[in-house]
Amino acid sequence: MLYGILQKVPGVWSYVEPRVYTPTWVHFDKRFGTPACSTGGFPTLRRGSISTYVLIAQDDLNTLGFATGGLDGIFGSKTENAVRNYQYSRGLAVDGIVGCNTWRSLQENVVGTGRTSTTID
Fold first, then answer.
1. Which long-range contacts (CB under 8 A, 24 or more apart) does 38-41 make?
2. What secondary structure, in 3-state letters, does the chain show?
3. pTM for the structure as a whole
4. Do the Cβ atoms of 79 and 64 come closer than 8 Å?
5. How far apart are CA 23 and CA 119, in angstroms?
6. CA–CA separation, 35 vs 53, rounded Å?
7. pLDDT tens-digit profile of 25-78?
8. What is the per-residue pLDDT for 3?
9. Comparing C-alpha atoms, which of 117, 106, 114 is closest to residue 57?
10. Cα 1 to the chain's mean position, in Å?
């Protein structure tokens, strides 16, 4: 019910960019904070972050074979290690932070992987 009401509030929701890489049900709540990329998208995540966006990053990482220790929406040491390992494997700056380049890479690499044991419905 609340989601339906919020959908009608102009300027609250925007699609994750690039839109072609995400299902239409994935949105970024602009009230949450500044997107990691200047063009929009998910917010920057780091150790201590707790949100649905952490859950999405964990699902992406697990799907790509980088174990986060579960899907709990809490950016702890296991998620940070998974991010670092992922960044290293893709030639990204290894800082353990899910910023613009890491988000972009995760979203591009997870597309087309199909259902896995960690897929969130």
1. 38/100, 40/14, 40/16, 41/16, 41/17, 41/100, 41/103, 41/104
2. CHHHHHHCCCCCEEECCCHHHCCCCCEEECCCCCEEECCEEEECECCCCECHHHHHHHHHHHHCCCCCCCCCCECCHHHHHHHHHHHHHCCCCCCCCECHHHHHHHHHHHCCCCCCCCCCC
3. 0.73
4. no
5. 13
6. 11
7. 455 555 566 788 887 778 999 999 998 889 899 999 999 999 999 888 899 999
8. 38
9. 106
10. 24
How far is the C-alpha of 78 from the C-alpha of 89, rounded, in Å?
A: 16
> Contact, 54 vs 45, CB < 8 A?
yes
Quick one: 9 exposed, middle or buried, by C-beta within 10 A (0-12, 13-18, 19+)?
A: exposed
